[in-house]
Amino acid sequence: MKYPFFASFIMFCLWLLYTLHRQRNKEADSDKNFWKREAAANSTRRKSLDNLDYIEIPFESLPMDVLADDPSVAEYHETLREIAKAPIVNFTGISNTDLKLMYGAPNIDILSRYDQRYTVLVRTLQNFAQTLYDNGYVDEACRILEFAVSTRTDISATYKLLAGIYRQKGETEKITALIPVAKELNSGLSKYIVSALEEFIS
Asked: How far apart are CA 82 and CA 35, in angstroms?
């Protein structure tokens, strides 16, 4: 009775060794490809940044006069005005290796700063909108959120709050219109955001 068990144990060990060996080979190939692409990226010459999708903050259409004396809102205003002084670009989902391949290794530091400003932008917009919404300024919050979505933010709270406002207004068709936008996000949160939006219209 011990022999079948022993034979099964041996087969399991052989299968496990084969699986581990195959996994190590895959990891080795992946590492090799990564360093090959990284080497190519590091040797890519500087390219023009003129055609980047630069983001302009539309202060004239944002509710900058609402709750302007509130300390939190005043801080959001200051942050937005400060980051607006320099270029802002959304590089969500794009690795540094890909950025170097696309725009040249010498540009990586400046591109990283562009993307960092974008991160600050969408976080500030979300907090700004939430504060206005919590104080009863629903339409004003909606305008901020719509601008944030237009920049292809992947902050799920932004989509949820905007969808909630649309449902509150009876504008469910606008929630539906957000779904393809969320599907095209270059972000690992895309599916989660789509699922959250679908719950608002189910």
From this structure: 37
Q: Are 91 and 99 spatial neighbours (Cβ–Cβ below 8 Å)?
A: yes
Burial class (CB in 10 A: 0-12, 13-18, 19+), 4: exposed
Q: What angle do CA 136, 157, 71 make, to 5 degrees?
A: 50
User: What does the pLDDT look like over 24-37, one tens digit per residue?
Assistant: 767 665 656 766 67
Q: Compute the distance between CA of residue 122 and CA of residue 189 in angstroms, rounded to an integer.
A: 15
% of the chain beyond a pLDDT of 90: 75
Pairwise CA distance, residues 127 & 32, whole Å:
42
- Contact present, 76 and 124 (Cβ < 8 Å): yes
